[in-house]
Amino acid sequence: MPSSRPLRADARRNREALLAAAREAFLAGDADAHVEEIARRAGVAVGTLYRHFDTREALIAEVYRQEVAELCAAPARLLAERPADEALRAFLLLLVDHSATGKGMGEALESIMATDSPVFDEAREDMAHALDQLLDAGVEAGLLRDDVSGRIVLRALGGICGMRSAGWENDARRIAAILCDGLRHTAHPPVRD
Questions:
Q1: Do residues 46 and 19 touch, judged by C-beta distance below 8 A?
Q2: What CA–CA distances, in Å, run from 175 to 100, 161, 164?
Q3: Residue 193 falls within a domain, yes or no?
Q4: Residue 97 clears pLDDT 80, i.e. is over it
Q5: Which of 38, 94, 98, 130 is the most buried (most CB within 10 A)?
Q6: One domain for residues 69 and 151
C-alpha cells in the first residue's frame, strides 16, 4: 500500500502506467489479466506493481476509483457549460455510460466484491454527492424541485443500469430523460427520502 508521502516523479509515472495498463485490460474484458501481464504492458517489473498495490484486487479497486473520480468531476464542468437542468441530464447520461463501462470491468470487479473493500460504498456516496451538486444548482436556479436527493436519483437510475438484458442502455437513456422531466420545478407534493 502506498505511503502518505508524495511519490517521486518516476514512481508516479510507474503507478500511472500500471493503472492505465490495468484499465485498458479490464475495459477490454480481459478480467483474467495477470499482474505479470499488466506490469509488462506498463513497462515495469512485477515487483514495481506490488510496491504500489498490495494485491491484484487493490489494483482493480484503484482503477475503479479512478473511473468514479473522473465521472464525479463532471458536474463542475457541466454546470459551467449549461443550465443546471441540462447539466443534470448530461450527467445522468454519463452515469449510464459509466454503468456500461462498469459492465466491461464486471468480472474484474466481481473479484473484489467478496473482500472488505469499501470501493462500492464510496463510489455510490461520491456519485450521490455529484448528483446533489447538480440538484442544488438546479434548485438555486429555480429549475429543479427541491425535495429529491442525489441518493434517490441514483437509486432510480441504478435499477435499470443494473439490468443485463439486451437494450438496457437505450432503456436507461430514456429513463434518464423521464427522471429529468420529473425533476423539473413544478408544484409537486414532497417526496420523503
A1: no
A2: 15, 10, 16
A3: no
A4: yes
A5: 38
A6: yes
